[in-house]
Write a structure and sequence with these properties.
The protein is an alpha/beta fold and 303 residues long. It is 44% helix and 16% strand. Strands 1-2-3-5-8-9-10-12 form an eight-stranded parallel beta barrel, surrounded by four helices. Strands 6-7 form a two-stranded antiparallel sheet. Helix 1 packs parallel to helix 11 and helix 4 crosses helix 6. The longest helix is centred in the C-terminal third of the chain and has 20 residues. The radius of gyration is 19 Å and the shape is globular.
């Protein structure tokens, strides 16, 4: 199993260099990947958590992390495609893929914050079809040569997007989301990147993913990535407050949880720190927690 960590670009840290610097620590500790979260506005539950504190731009932080690291994969967890434009994003991602020498992973989703859609002028109800067309346009722009796209939202005739991605035909595209449309969409691409699902819930949904893959003549054995994205909360919690995420508890409990995900076929465990204690502690304390997890859970899992 591979292990990743989501950089705290969404945690109100003032200095963006300090956020990207966590990627260096993750690489030093043996993590396989680092990730960035994406929202455009502090609105809805994002504003409730951060107020006016910074939510740093996902791709800018990922670019800075690419410059500071040499080995870890660099992922988006996840880009909300309805807020973006496929031609602009195709160029940005291809550039990051070249800067990182092919270490990019493209996690995408439809979004789940109606207030943000409304503020940005994007219809919330159409976000699924929009996402499908977005991916079709973006991958067409990444294909060799000029591209003509007869799309509903982004028709293009004889256009060239350059650079093409470093990795051919393009970086792996991983679909976020827990509902059947997201599972069907994931089976059309290179992986599934759901948020905060316990092992049994993932196993149930993987039945549908496997059926969709089989219908397309594929299987998870073909390199399909299955990610479990979970909050890692090693800070002490009040006794009257239940654990807020599966990755919580003693070292033995953490090891057992990792084993449960491994047994159902999870290829990557992507951790984040979203607890109020993590929000207050800052990146330096966060790295202390990652040191503990790497030593007590990650390395024994690989032994």
């Amino acid at each position: 199993m591979r292990f990743g960590f989501t950089l705290p670009n969404n945690m109100g840290v003032t200095d963006p260099d300090e956020v990207a610097g966590v990627a260096v620590d993750c690489e030093r500790l043996g993590f396989d990947s680092v990730w960035v979260a994406h929202h455009v506005l502090n609105i809805g539950y994002v504003r409730e958590r951060l107020g006016e504190r910074p939510y740093h731009d996902a791709l800018t932080i990922l670019t800075w992390a690419a410059a500071k690291t040499h080995r870890v994969e660099l992922g988006t967890s996840v880009l909300v495609l309805p807020y973006l434009h496929p031609a602009t994003l195709a160029k940005q991602l291809a550039t990051i893929d070249h800067l990182s020498q092919g270490r990019l992973l493209v996690g995408v989703g439809v979004g789940s914050l109606p207030e943000e859609n409304a503020a940005l002028g994007v219809t919330y109800e159409d976000r699924g079809p929009l996402t499908d067309e977005f991916l079709a346009v973006m991958t067409a722009l990444w294909a060799p040569g000029a591209t003509t796209v007869n799309g509903t939202r982004w028709p293009m005739h004889d256009v060239v997007s350059s650079p093409k991605p470093f990795r051919s035909p393009h970086p792996p595209i991983l679909i976020g989301g827990n509902r059947p449309p997201a599972l069907r969409r994931a089976a059309r691409w290179q992986g599934w990147h759901p948020m905060r699902l316990p092992p049994q819930s993932m196993a149930t949904r993987l039945v549908l993913v496997d059926a969709e893959l089989a219908a397309a003549g594929r299987s998870r054995e073909d390199g399909f990535r299955v990610h479990a994205c979970l909050d890692l909360d090693l800070w002490p919690q009040p006794r009257d407050r239940p654990p807020r995420a599966p990755m919580h508890g003693t070292t033995e409990q953490l090891r057992d949880t990792v084993g449960q995900y491994r047994e159902i076929g999870v290829t990557d465990l992507v951790l984040s720190a979203m607890s109020p204690a993590a929000l207050q502690a800052g990146p330096s304390r966060l790295v202390d927690q990652l040191e503990h997890f790497a030593a007590e859970v990650m390395r024994p899992e690989r032994a």
